[in-house]
Amino acid sequence: MFDSLKDKLGSFRKDVEETTEEKAEEAEATAEAEAEAEAKADAEAKADADAATEESVDAESDSESDESASSGGGFAQKAKSFAKGEIVIEEQDLEDPLWELEMALLESDVEMSVAQEILDNIREDLVGATRSFNSETADVVEQALHDSLLKVISVGQFDFDQRIAEADKPVTIIFTGVNGVGKTTTIAKLSKYFEERGLSAVLANGDTYRAGANEQIQEHADNLDKKLIAHEQGGDPAAVIYDAVEYADSHDIDVVLGDTAGRLHTDEGLMDQLEKIGRVVGPDMTLFVDEAVAGQDAVQRAKQFNDAAEIDGAILTKADADSQGGAAISIAHVTGKPILFLGTGQGYDHIEKFDPEQLVDRLLGDEE
Ligand SMILES: Nc1nc2c(ncn2[C@@H]2O[C@H](COP(=O)(O)OP(=O)(O)O)[C@@H](O)[C@H]2O)c(=O)[nH]1
Ligand SMILES: [Mg+2]
């Protein structure tokens, strides 16, 4: 998952490390050269003084003055301050590595404004940061990268489990998104997720548009031993979900998972449908589903869906097949709504609660 992005972030750290390493070496060389020059100056001054005071100088006093110069205070003093010394990371040190990082983020399908924000955060953290000669630059850079990624990724995060636990039952969740991204599969996975947390769920097939939709979701319901509420193809999705809420009410079911047809966000009919579901059912949550592999497209769709019918959060499927990670990094910052789950495969257990800290650790290689 996100392997290519992970590699690229690794190169950035190496770039900055190398740049500051070079700078440290230069500073070291300068310090040494200065110390030497000073020692030499001391020696010469001493030799001059010796020569001045002892007019009748012999070979012995010459060698004496050499000795006193090499062990002299000037050099020792410099060496000491150098050992305690620090170098400061300046904006120009970061210019090349940051440019490379920007390219890497854009190549990984991170949205432009999000990439900018990440760079700004890193610049703010690193410019002026001091690094002692002896410490690892890697720690400073890693921290800056960690913090800047976490900041954009964790926008809007809330505790999903807690919100569901505290909500009046039944809780109704509607899933939106374009066709084929994994809405129906995600609903099936979540019904199992809830069961494992002691919550019962009923499925509602609001996708009355697509032929075969009922059969597909019925198969999941059968596999997972869940009740499905469905109407005939062409029926009113709001009516299906309404029936499911009624069913949940009378059967003491905790969660209603409402599927919808995956038509385009630009489709007025779809937006009318969502608006009607909102009016008739008043869902507790609307979750936008898209596939991580769609990258920037997923980010743009999330934004457009959210603008058209406000979402509470997003679910990114097919993260198992995504090496770029751009959508995972960008969606929350662009929409202001958090990613709540990652789909990580076709099996019912292939769903992970989205954890920004864990994603950052993953990207920075602290975890596989
Ligand atoms: N690899 C992978 N495939 C997934 C994931 N989620 C869904 N799929 C597959 O994506 C395809 C479309 O899923 P479906 O739920 O029918 O999408 P929908 O049209 O949005 O309802 C199916 O073949 C799913 O098995 C996932 O997290 N990883
Ligand atoms: Mg579907």
At the fold tier of CATH, the topology name of the largest domain is Rossmann fold
- What ranges have pLDDT less than 50 throughout 5 or more consecutive residues? 63-72, 77-84
How much helical structure, as a percent, in the residues?
55-70%
Instruction: Determine the number of helices (DSSP H or I, runs of at least 4 residues).
Output: 14
Q: What Rg, in angstroms, do the CA atoms define?
A: 32 Å
Q: What's the rounded overall pLDDT mean? A: 87
What are the SSEs and their pairings?
Blueprint (H helix, E strand, L loop, with lengths): L2 H51 L5 H12 L2 H12 L1 E3 L2 H17 L4 H15 L3 E3 L4 H17 L6 H7 L4 E6 L6 H14 L4 E6 L6 H12 L2 E3 L7 H15 L3 E6 L7 H14 L3 E7 L4 H13 L4 E5 L8 H10 L3 E5 L7 E3 L2 H8 L5
Parallel strand pairs: 3-6, 3-7, 4-5, 4-6, 7-8, 8-9
Antiparallel strand pairs: 1-2, 9-10
Helix pairs in contact: 1-2, 1-3, 1-4, 1-6, 4-5, 5-6, 6-14, 8-9, 10-11, 12-13
The protein binds guanosine-5'-diphosphate (GDP) and magnesium ion (MG).
What does the model show?
- This protein has 368 residues and is α/β, with parallel strands linked by helices.
- It has two domains: 3-153, SRP54, nucleotide-binding domain (Four Helix Bundle (Hemerythrin (Met), subunit A), Up-down Bundle); 160-353, P-loop containing nucleotide triphosphate hydrolases (Rossmann fold).
- The protein is 59% helix and 13% strand.
- It is built from 14 helices and ten strands.
- The chain has an eight-stranded mixed β-sheet, with helices on both faces. Strands 1-2 form a two-stranded antiparallel sheet.
- A hairpin with a 7-residue loop joins strand 9 and strand 10 (351-353).
- Mean pLDDT is 87; it is low at 63-72 and 77-84.
- The structure holds guanosine-5'-diphosphate and magnesium ion.
- The site of guanosine-5'-diphosphate has 18 residues, from helix 8.
